[in-house]
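Complex record, two chains
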Amino acid sequence: MDIEKADLLRLYHFLKLTRRFEDRITALYRQGRILGGVWTSNGMEAISVGYACALDKDDVIAPYFRDMGAYIVRGITVNRIMAQYFGKKTGVTGGREGNVHVGDINLGVLGYPSHLADNYPVAAGVALSFKIRGERRVAAACTGDGGTSRGDFHEAMNMASVWKVPVVFVCNNNQYAYSTPLSLQMAINNVAERALAYSIPAETVDGNDVIEVFLAMKRACERAREGNGPSFIECRTMRMHGHSEHDAAKYVPRELLEEWKKKDPVIRMENYLLSNNVASQKDLSDIDAGIMKEIAEAEEFAEKSPLPEGEDAVKGVYATPV
Amino acid sequence: MSEITYLQAIHDALDEEMSDNKDVFLMGEDIGYYGGAFRVTEGLYDKYGRWRVIDTPLSESGFTGAAIGASLMGMRPVIEMQFADFISCAFDQIVTVAAKNYFRWGGKTPIVVRSPFGGNVHGGAFHSQCPEGWFLNVPGLKIVAPSNPYDAKGLLKSSIRDDDPVLYFEHKFLYRRIKGDVPDEDYTVPIGKSRITREGKDLTVITYSAMVHVASEAAEILEGEGISTEIIDLRTLMPLDKDGILASVKKTNKVIILYETPRTGGIGGEIAALISEDVFDYLDGPIIRIGAKDTPVPYSPPMEECYLPNVDDVVVAARKLIAY
């Protein structure tokens, strides 16, 4: 499968935007200027950017909490997300939720619940609705390696395979679930082996290579649209920050981090674009300048936005109030 | 008007809603070819096909999550917990995902969870529970529990058409034992409205589902003793019909709350508190709660009889309250 220049630049743009945006959120968190916790995808941006860029506009995603790239790719603006972090009325959920707990049905983004892998059966159900209605759309869900130990993961994989519905399950195998290493999480080496039990075709890809993730996702989507059912994509990567920004991750060997630092997905993509003459250093600098401006504007937007009214908390519990 | 069973009323509601709206579909264990453990969905598989009446793997959490996903796409899934007891397996999807989607990010989640519940059928600890109380502390859900065929059909139609997640508790004991007149034309029973099933002036029994029939039998006995009993069938447990409850208390001034879940932590405490807070001055006696015993549901008939609230419990409590 070939990849077009436009796709390459699009992938790079979102990779860099995600990195810069989350870095800024982390800085704001350290300054005590935003509320709650911060969980970033630092070092793993290629996964959410790669899978989201491979989808069509009408497809639906059920992301998880290290999928900032996917939120942005789908069109949830950095303004709205930044305001969400500030608990502002202009945030994606109007202050009802914080950080990455965003969702926008009009953009095909389902809200993420903290209970990991709960979004897997939900995505299978979205895909079921596509099958019942005869639509050529795809649903995608993502979770981490830890999430694949939960019952909902297994129930969803099983159901989706039995029903042959158009869903792609993505797994961000970043080797740690909070402080729990893969070896204490499962007795297998590759998460993808879990898919075998459900007769779901699985691939293990380099999660730090955005092109590889993108192409694997394209293949899985094509398969789904042809009516051939679900796929599973394990993206191998490394979590470069703590579980959240308050976690120094002392349980991770430093040499492991040093090793993975060399595989940084953003730098790798920059090198690829330069060495293949897809973009010049100036092109990349221009992209970066645009991104920095966008983020600064988002911060200003969030700062200036009003907080919601306290009473808004009791509104909107029911779609049809009684 | 036709006289049909409670079970037939549920079946007919499903059939009519599926026929009227192609977005309505069913999911659950053994509901398709087999027609359901209680035969509620019998015939629907043949009529609507395997993608409208879907036999699922044994995965309550999974298919509840799948129903949520489909509902977010604008479909109207109705899922069946073969026995309400198994809803515990789907608790997380109902409480974490379905109940909070709309509030958190505006995702409309119109699923209906049909759950055959209740005792008096010698089903033991895993086939007789009344789990509705587990969900009363979860904003975002609606909970209904009809006592008769008219309400069973009308409430199920309302539940399917409602934009929120609705837990629909249907009582197994009533399935083939209770018959009633149901209009031939389309109608609904509104969610959130109770009904006075028997007018009275001396005391009010607030109850729902199978216990409505227990209350009715008790009221007959009490009538013979010159005690006039009003019975409120709640029909909806969440949101509660506060106005209906308070109006009756103001009228009779004495209250018994009768429910089939274990007494402690059940809906009775909530209603008692509501009454105390809002119409305390109208009370002429203590609010009495009659619930099941605080024990897992036992199997053997004498033990299950002891566990469940019965007619005698209500009669004795009423006499005590009248004499107060």
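Note: Residues 5-30 of chain A form the longest helix (26 residues).
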